[in-house]
Design a protein that fits this description.
Length: 172
């Protein structure tokens, strides 16, 4: 069975990347921040009020998720102090394997002009699908239950976003 592009990107390292809770939170923060950037920008470029409202709602949810993840990270700080190498490893992982692969337009701060609102919705749907795919692949390769639970929680949130976008697409 042929691996897809994202799966092969995430599994290139034969030794695998061992993640800690902090790493999983950092990865999740990156994904949520990219989503926030996309939804804020997309909301400014659509004309249909329903599409604008859903993008603004999803941006607000991303903002809330970011705050929750930052709070979790704060609670972990006393436990993980002095582990700077992990941060550099996770920064490299994000840069090489995630940056520009989920919400590509977010990476360069461009405001995309969509042909129509339907195209903007499609872009959001495809981005949420890529996010779910990335997180599911991380889950498959992860052994630690605490790390898996962080990724699994974000998968559930991304699936909610996907469902909202797909439902709205049927109404436009």
């Amino acid at each position: 069975m042929k691996k897809n592009k994202i799966e092969s990107e995430l599994t290139k390292d034969p030794g695998g990347t061992a993640f800690h809770c902090k790493d999983a939170i950092e990865i999740s923060l990156f994904i949520e921040k990219e989503g926030l950037g996309f939804y804020e920008k997309a909301a400014k470029n659509v004309s249909d009020r329903r599409v604008k409202d859903i993008f603004l709602r999803l941006a607000e949810e991303e903002r809330e998720h970011i705050q929750i993840l930052k709070t979790k990270l704060q609670f972990l700080k006393p436990v993980i102090s002095g582990k700077g190498k992990t941060t550099r490893k996770i920064d490299l992982f994000v840069k090489e394997k995630l940056e520009g692969k989920i919400f590509p337009a977010s990476e360069n701060n461009l405001v995309i002009k969509y042909k129509n609102d339907f195209e903007a919705l499609d872009y959001g749907i495809e981005s949420e699908k890529r996010s779910i795919e990335v997180l599911n692949n991380l889950l498959l390769n992860e052994k630690k239950l605490d790390v898996k639970s962080i990724f699994a929680h974000l998968v559930a949130e991304e699936k909610k976003h996907l469902a909202l976008l797909e439902e709205l697409k049927t109404k436009i």
